[in-house]
Specification:
The complex is a heterodimer of chains A (about 290) and B (about 290). In chain A, about 75% of the residues lie in helices and about 5% in strands. Chain A has about 290 residues and is mainly α. Helix content of chain B is about 80%, strand content about 0%. Classes of the chains: A mainly alpha (about 290), B mainly alpha (about 290). The interface between A and B is large, with 50 and 39 residues.
Amino acid sequence: MLFFDLLVQGLLQGGIYALIAIGLTLVYGLLRILHVAHAGLYTLGGYIAILITNATGSFTLGITVSMVSVGFMGMVIYRLIYQPILEKPPFVALIASIGLFIAMEEIYRIVFGAYGITFADAPLQGTLNIAGIYLRHCEIGALLLAALLITSLSLFTRYSRIGIAWRATVTDPGMSQSFGVDVIKVRYLNFFIGSAMAAGAGSMVAVMNNLVEPTMGSVPSYKALAIIVLGGLGNVRGTVIAALIIGVAEAFGTIYLGNILDRDSIAFALLILVLMVKPTGLFSKG
Amino acid sequence: MQYEISLLTIMGISIIAALSLNLIVGFCGQISLGHAAFLGVGAYTSAMLTKAGVPFTAAVAASMLMAGIIGTVVGFTSLRVREDFLAITTMGVGFLFLGIVRKQDFLGGEMGIAMIPDPGLGKVGYLVLVLLLAATLALFSIYLKRSWMGFTFDAVADDEDTANLVGIDVSSYKLIAFAMGTAFAGLAGALYAHNIKFIDPESFGFVESITILSMVVIGGTGSVWGVTIAAGVLSIFPMWFQFIDDYKLLVYGGLLCMIMLFSPDGLSGIFGRFLNTIRGKNFNASGQ
């Protein structure tokens, strides 16, 4: 039973990672920016979900408000931070993003306190027994949310007009612009969707831990970078698969490698191994 | 006086750390987000050796060697991956270092190593040693920048493929940059360990890597005096202004972000433009 327990926990964690990493890989695919501050938005999503839920008593409202407002926040970050430095060498945006992320964490600490905030009455805490594996409602909710968001994203990019325009822009910005795609609109949309998904993940993690701390995003932020690199930068499907692999590898690794490596470095050990064999990641295009 | 001496010592160590990273990022153009790990390698090597009775000088030399060897191995990754991929890989190396050290009981695990032996130079003697080493490294950097090797590094940093095309052995120069940079990082780490006399994994984490990188970037990547000044100011900044200590990271993060937005070439870029403006005026004043 331990095997299935670990597998389910790994997939759950992988689903959360996937929600965070998709936004990152979308930004990279479109703008070639490593958007480290993305995890700051994930934390912000957790904070907003808790604040709204505590104020109104409805978690559904909390997670909705959190996703929408953080989506807009993502657009603001693009406009204020990234747009002015798009033409600069890649490390400029990377360092600006790291700086922004550090500053965001500090602002959360100063505004909301170093010890974090919790739900007044945490929702979805009941447990369910599925074939001998005990899962909390919020964990099932997180899995469902991840599956729902990822499926709708893939349907959206496949069948809607703006979704197709988006994919065209990722493949060749210049060409799609000359075919009449509004590249600026696509970028805003990109940041909105990516950030909203991160906020969804942040809200679910807030319920699962019943806690949001200022540093909640630190570890996922760097791990998500490992995941998108592993998935072949800019490749959404590769990112989802890589996220699930890392989630499962961590769940098993903590048990079997626990005395030589700590949990958080397993992803990076895997990353370095893969990159040395295949320098463009597992699922790179072409 | 004691307080000023300890401040200056920390300043000297930070300058060595920043200049060592400048060799990799500034000179050779290879981004590294895990530099604190090499300070860590140096600090742990020196701490373990001196605790085992090895003399201070030999332990410091060994820690430079150790950090340099591990750095060269990491440098090999820069031959396989570039730019963004290299940034993430070096970041991964930093996390891997932490992850491994935390779990090793003989390295003290989470608790770290305490009671690291004093080198026996006295406070002032140690300060003089640190400042001498920092000055030597600064002079070495300036010399290197103007030597043929410096020009080759420039070529590799600017355009790797073209450099390769004109017959520069890009791989070797990248490895040399990593070997030198990380060996000096080992030196900084060893000096840090014997100054504070206590080290734990958290002293060499990601934030420390970024702090060192921010010194290089704020100073102006590649500019020796810019990096030296930035490292000197930023390292003691939070201690002079005790009230800012709580906001230290906010200031770091904000500064990093703002400098990238408004002057990606850092202090030396601002100064360069300032000089140009003055020269421009003189130029016009002389009627030409």
